[in-house]
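Task: fold both queries, return tokens.
Query 1:
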Amino acid sequence: MKIGFIGAGRMGGPIVERLIAAGNDVTVLTRGSETRSTAKAKGWNTSDTIEQTVQSAELVISIVLNDEQVQAALLGSGGAVAAMAPGAILVQHTTCDPDTAVMVADAGAERGVHVLDAAVSGSPQDTAAGRLTLWVGGDEYVLDSVRPVLESYGSPVMHVGPIGHGQRVKLVNNALFVAQIGLAVDAVRLAAAVGIGEAEILAAIQHGSGDSRALSSLAWIGVDAVGIRLAELMLKDVAVIRQIADRTGADLGLIGEVLSSELVEREVLYSGAPPNRELIEQTPLTPGSMKPSM
């Protein structure tokens, strides 16, 4: 397919490489000097404007940093949706507010552009290996029309419901992951209290029923470094989770209690990420104050 790509950074770059390797004609937006240098070194087709990147594309893929960037890149007179051809498809990968996904889809409908809310889970290494998880909200027939392209870097590619559900699944997943990281850190504390070292307990539990991806991640990163390595990404997602729960009246329940615990705030979310601490403090969580389900 002829593809316009917005956001060829840490996660997006490996996607571009997989798309090109699969035989797609990809044009990459390169407004930043770092992205431009990388693209030039790799021999990618590039463009300096959103309009040039998307106007002749059958498929546009966007994976920018946050909700604000999603709206700036995709909406309004200078956004991708306004420049896309009727009948084209937009796949939006960035973790954002589900309402933003709906806004983008509504804007697309006015232009005859099909939108898929395709939240992702995994690392750049997963992408390079073609095993990035995609949770896709939107019309299933639209997903089926681009599934072979998405499967060049994603497996599984799962349809999870209407627009917004891709983001909702991702946010629930990330809430659970951060809570599990916190519990794994506390398991290390408990083990130390009974005389077992961190490396020993984490290695042992990976072969037991208490294992999880969170625990394996902690074993790889180490308790002392988990906040430094993961906090910046997790802070953003936990802030979104809290904002949505507050707005919708969703009860975060036991997950919310773990997320707001002193251990998680001190060891998982704040350690090594002081510049972003205010992000989560803007949406404080009071356990039990939120009501029906998301």
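Query 1 returned. Query 2:
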Amino acid sequence: MQDIIIGNHRIGEGNAPFIIAEMSGNHGQSLEKALEIVDAAADAGCQALKIQTSTPDMLTLDSREPDFIVRGANDDWEGQSLYELYTTNHTPFEWHAPIFARAAERGMVGFSSPFSVEAIDFLETLNCPIYKIASFENNWPDLIRRAARTGKPVIISTGMADLADLERMVRTVRDEGNDQVVLLKCTSTYPAVPLDTNLRTIPHLRAMFGCQVGLSDHTMGTGVGVAATVLGATVIEKHLTIRRSDGGPDSSFSMEPTEMRRLVQECQQAQQALGTVHYGPTAAEQKSLAFRRSIYVVKDIEAGELLTEDNIRVIRPGHGLAPHYLPQVLGRPARQAIRRGTALTWSVL
């Protein structure tokens, strides 16, 4: 499968995961705080900063009819109408340009999740380099199709999607002549728990659709992201806030900056640790060979004297014959006198 190039970053096997910090509504309707989150993402080592492009009217109706009231999804959302929730959560359109500019200044890719076709039209005026389709939008072909037609990478969270949904969304992108699709394994609960995460799906998705696969992670901590990296995730997305105690619609399942920095470091280390299939000492282990056991003379031996368990032993360091040769050398005569502390070699027998 092809790697995907985004700016100076390569998404693909053999590269550290592309780590996306999701701002969502954690800016608390303050541009100053939004820019603080951008800086925190950069300081943590993230490769990308993502926002969301929507208005409440793009998403729902201003209604408090029972169907429009949030029940049982997240304690911070409970009892709000969808319209109220999305009013709190949305990022004003006039903030997009300064947020993207700050991300670029800090060496990150700035991009967005559009929640309507009109949102993509707006983002195109800002030359948004990637489009992310959220799990709650992945059953809407028109949105996916419009994103695919830009010719830019399309990242799709797979929360709640069955196999038929997945096949449809990937085909929708590819039918537009766009093969730059990334699927993110996602559990659409807020927060999610590891038990529901099913990371073994990641290599299965990659094999089934022949595309880059990553993780959109709503669990707490770094463990799930690191495990996903080991299973081949090339993209990791996590929500970022300055302080969970600040509150907000997504704060309860967002990372703080120190946690995000640890995630970036641990995912990089996990990817590096995968290495290749290798047996025998590595180049780094060569010096450690001296600390293995080998056969040494432990008492002075005269020329012609037989080697016995009394005058030779398997000890450290490892400069003599390997221990598995002990049965072959016991009972053999020494060719010359050998001093105590000499590594036994074939040349003295």
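Both queries returned. Flag for query 2: The first strand starts at residue 4 and ends at 6.
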